[in-house]
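Recap from last week: sequence in, structure out.
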Amino acid sequence: MKIKPVLILSLILLMLGSAGCRQTPDLYQHLGAIARPYHFSLAAWEVKTIPHELDQLASGWRNQTADEVQTVTSHFDTVRRIRTLNSQIQAIDHTGQGDSSQLKEELDTLREQRLASQDEVERILEKQIKAVLAEQDIFNPFDIYGLRPRINFPPLNFKLEPPPKLLVVSPRERIESLREFLLKPDISLEEMEAVEAAADELGVSSLVVELGGLGATYPSLVTNEASLRFTLEAAAEEWLHQYLFPRPLGILYTLDLIGLSPNYEMATINETVASMASKEIGALVYEKYYAPYENADQSSQQDSSGFDFNREMRDIRRKVDEYLVCGEIELAEGFMEEKRQYLADNGYYIRKLNQAYFAFHGTYADSPTSVSPIGAELEKLREQSLSLKDFLNKAATITSRQHLQEMLE
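Predicted structure tokens:
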């Protein structure tokens, strides 16, 4: 059932916990020792998941839902209510004002409801995303050779459950991802902070981040706590990483991930291509099946106060880069903490704002935390492309930033 190239990718990424380092072996060994007690095993997850997926594949042929859209929208109504309850319970427990026991009972009931519908929702969304990919004539990375039959490869398959967390390590003197370690999804806040503190003692900047999805597994992992729109985009994005894997862009990105040929620009290009294309695919699926549900499923709310979070984050990133170029590391770190508190005062809470934060989020050149011109260059490439498939085929051949610029010329 599991496709060989994806298994190869999983094995390669599994080496992230045991292979090469971009700085010194001693640093890597110390970081590995810090992360090891909380290590997330890709192999163990696959062994646990594959039998369940085989069973679901068989039952999917037997069981057909009468109203698929209603099943999905009801599921994400439950997810949204779970997020609301979690926020209310945390507020009550933090302030000590009020009784959260009834809210916790409702939360347990809703979690059971979410679990009961999860497998069916996965099957429905997979079918809908594949239908849109077929409409866009996107089937597999070997389409360029005109092969038949036109099959979806690798088969789009994802699981809705909490993905592992990720320990990101950056140098203090510049913003760049040195190492990343997958950690168990249930690691507590106290444990996350202890891991970060131990890593920072080695003279680096570290951060444990929550992932929205993970394409290093097959099936892919997508968080079960997000909105419908985000889930569609995340499922498409993780599949696109697998789709790009055997092409030059995906190969060079993999070499960067395992430390054999570090290239932050190629990582940025790969992540940004997948992000841009997944947003386009997610929007098409959403409009085709869930347009009447749109008003009820806003994954983000506009800030009526006029506060521009995206602009603020770009300004912060530019100022931090200026400090670091001048060697003013302490000033940069003090500035980031000051701005973190400023963002919190304006309703945007970031647990920790540091070099590792920007190293992780800045890989997406279409995100507000990036100041890379690669995002604008890829947007121009998309504008010059005849279709989404044409854009992916062009992007998949990119071997360097200079190559991308030559394409545009």
